[in-house]
Design the sequence.
């Protein structure tokens, strides 16, 4: 029997996906088979994208939130002609250094918008993408160019796992509240989880849930073959501008295979050569051919590519006309895309006089506003703590259904979705998003935080109330282990500035790291502006703040403990003490070995690290560590400081102990920075 071209294309998507997984003997086939029809309809009939220009600003965005079905996405990128996605890449699915990793990674593969795999993250990212798109459209549209910017949709595939993860409840609740009408989510309703059928753990009425969030909902009963029904549902969703859309699509996992509608279909269920051959036969495909695309299917997708490439080049012509007519707006947009800051960044940041004191969270608020005034791509907000976090942009409005130009986002008490949305906003290509809450609540947001680093997204985490000194709120709110966890995370920059100059420098460095997230930790309590801190020195991540000749001991501290160390050193008049401030370990690590050794003293004196948090990690930079390796306590901050020994008197006694120990040769002094390089 002859297949329609649509059916040929769908079956090609299926067999390419199965071949990839079978070639690797690892991966997930079932969802690729079940969602091939909707993938074909969306990618070949509806979606607007240009394989020749993958970063085209006005493209439709596609997010595979059920990222385990990555073989499906790679098949689509291959068919639609993304230059990198060759047959060889499909053959190297899940292999070392391929462009086809086990789960989609935006930093690896052209055409992948966001890194997905941890379920729910992609759907939550897409809410951020849709928000960025609305903001760009309202900010840059003019009467004569009303639909040049942000005139596209964001499409999401998701599964039941995504909907069970709490992050999507947070994000979808906010998406409904904000009326993000160009977000279209397609739910692969196949009734199967890894452990069985969904009814062992998931029986809620998903449609009613999304209606209650304020979404437009539809249900397509035959996702296996009703292509026109699928197309109609997506086009209906496009017409709804004031609400995000949720389409429930009934599909069969592992469609057409021996394991269809079985939990084993989720993974590598079609695992023998015979089963793969049989499946290809049942689809009317040649079982002897692998990674095969017929001439007809190739031609069909070539036409899709030409259409998309043409749309992109026509759009570029309109953009050029816009830039000619509105040079100021064009300049601003270019600055947003490149993260271009004023040359004289230091001059626009606030200046501080030694002797004055203020909480670093307030200093942060001033720096944030100075940068926000100079750089229109800064957009973000707090999880219902904007006043405490000092994170509002004073010269902007709130982003809402009535005002899309606002750059202040009210995330509500949704830390996880806030950070996942920020990853989506960062992926859009014109924005540096920032998020704010108490440092301790990074625990709530960590699923998204880790992905900021893995996917190389510039997100500013402006987290305040950074130690036990927040006081009476007690151990539920007092961070202990959080900084250690962040410093242990690859690609994450952590800043804990001691005063105003260090705060300014921390922001300057964070804004320059366009492929990394940064966490900036700030105090609730007042700290003094230090006599010898400078913006320039702080840019190095660690520097000598107070020096003496031939120090007997080096005090190494961060944040609010730096001023404690300065005071302690002053009180110990008979001792020679160097004080080192280290606002960022990661930035310090990037300095030359010579510089680092000069700061840490080349093993000439013992180093005592002082930080009001876990001591974990400080062993690398110090001989002895003073910190807090237990949970905090509920009391006023000065009482806690006294109780835990963070006073000049009590720290002074510890200093004497350390000097005595090494002075009497009880401990062997070594150079903490002298180590063999194990990297080749």
Sequence:
């Amino acid at each position: 029997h002859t297949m329609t071209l649509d059916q040929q294309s769908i079956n090609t998507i299926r067999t390419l996906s199965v071949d990839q997984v079978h070639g690797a003997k690892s991966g997930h086939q079932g969802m690729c088979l079940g969602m091939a029809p909707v993938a074909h309809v969306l990618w070949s009939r509806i979606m607007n994208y240009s394989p020749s220009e993958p970063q085209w600003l006005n493209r439709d965005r596609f997010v595979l939130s059920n990222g385990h079905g990555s073989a499906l996405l790679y098949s689509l990128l291959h068919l639609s002609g993304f230059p990198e996605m060759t047959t060889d890449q499909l053959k190297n699915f899940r292999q070392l250094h391929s462009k086809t990793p086990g789960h989609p990674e935006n930093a690896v593969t052209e055409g992948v918008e966001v890194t997905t795999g941890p379920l729910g993250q992609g759907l939550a990212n897409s809410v951020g993408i849709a928000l960025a798109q609305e903001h760009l459209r309202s900010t840059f549209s003019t009467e004569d160019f009303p639909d040049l910017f942000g005139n596209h949709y964001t499409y999401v595939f998701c599964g039941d796992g995504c909907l069970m993860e709490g992050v999507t409840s947070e994000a979808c609740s906010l998406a409904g509240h904000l009326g993000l009408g160009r977000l279209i989510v397609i739910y692969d309703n196949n009734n199967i989880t890894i452990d069985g059928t969904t009814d062992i753990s998931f029986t809620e009425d998903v449609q009613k849930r999304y209606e209650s969030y304020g979404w437009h909902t539809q249900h397509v009963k035959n996702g296996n073959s009703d292509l026109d029904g699928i197309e109609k549902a997506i086009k209906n969703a496009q017409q709804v501008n004031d609400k995000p859309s949720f389409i429930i699509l009934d599909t069969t996992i592992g469609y057409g295979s021996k394991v269809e509608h079985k939990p084993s279909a989720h993974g590598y269920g079609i695992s023998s050569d015979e089963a793969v051959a049989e499946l290809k036969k049942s689809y009317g495909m040649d079982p002897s051919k692998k990674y095969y695309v017929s001439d007809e299917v190739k031609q069909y997708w070539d036409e899709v590519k030409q259409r998309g490439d043409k749309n992109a080049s026509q759009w570029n012509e309109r953009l050029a006309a816009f830039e000619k007519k509105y040079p100021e707006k064009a300049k601003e947009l270019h600055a947003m895309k490149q993260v271009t800051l004023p040359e004289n960044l230091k001059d626009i940041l606030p200046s501080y006089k030694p002797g004055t004191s203020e909480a670093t969270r307030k200093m942060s608020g001033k720096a944030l506003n100075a940068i926000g005034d100079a750089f229109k791509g800064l957009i973000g907000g707090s999880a219902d703590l904007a006043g405490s976090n000092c994170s509002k942009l004073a010269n902007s409005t709130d982003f809402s259904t009535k005002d899309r130009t606002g750059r202040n986002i009210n995330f509500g008490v949704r830390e996880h979705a806030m950070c996942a949305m920020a990853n989506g906003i960062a992926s859009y290509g014109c924005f540096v998003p920032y998020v704010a809450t108490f440092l301790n609540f990074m625990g709530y947001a960590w699923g998204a935080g880790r992905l900021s680093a893995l996917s190389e997204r510039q997100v500013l985490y402006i987290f305040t109330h950074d130690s036990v000194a927040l006081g009476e709120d007690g151990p539920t709110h007092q961070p202990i282990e959080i900084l250690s966890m962040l410093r242990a995370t690859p690609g994450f920059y952590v800043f804990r500035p001691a005063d105003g100059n260090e705060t300014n420098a921390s922001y300057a460095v964070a804004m320059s790291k366009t492929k990394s997230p940064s966490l900036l930790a700030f105090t609730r309590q007042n700290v003094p502006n230090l006599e010898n801190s400078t913006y320039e020195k702080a840019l190095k991540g660690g520097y000598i703040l107070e020096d003496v000749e031939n120090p007997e001991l080096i005090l190494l501290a961060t944040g609010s403990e730096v001023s404690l160390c300065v005071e302690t050193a002053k009180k110990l008049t008979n001792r020679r003490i160097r004080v080192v401030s280290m606002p960022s370990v990661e930035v310090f690590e990037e300095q030359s070995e010579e510089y680092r050794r000069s700061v840490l003293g080349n093993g000439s004196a013992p180093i005592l690290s002082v930080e009001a948090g876990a001591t974990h990690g400080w062993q690398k930079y110090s001989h002895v560590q003073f910190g807090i390796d237990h949970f905090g306590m509920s009391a006023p901050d000065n009482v806690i400081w006294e109780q835990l020994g963070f006073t000049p008197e009590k720290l002074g006694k510890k200093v004497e102990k350390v000097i005595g120990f090494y002075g009497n040769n009880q401990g062997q002094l070594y150079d903490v920075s002298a180590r063999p390089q194990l990297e080749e």
Remarks:
- Residues 295-325 form the longest helix (31 residues).
- The CA atoms of residues 222 and 250 lie 6 Å apart.
- The chain has 25 helices and 20 strands.
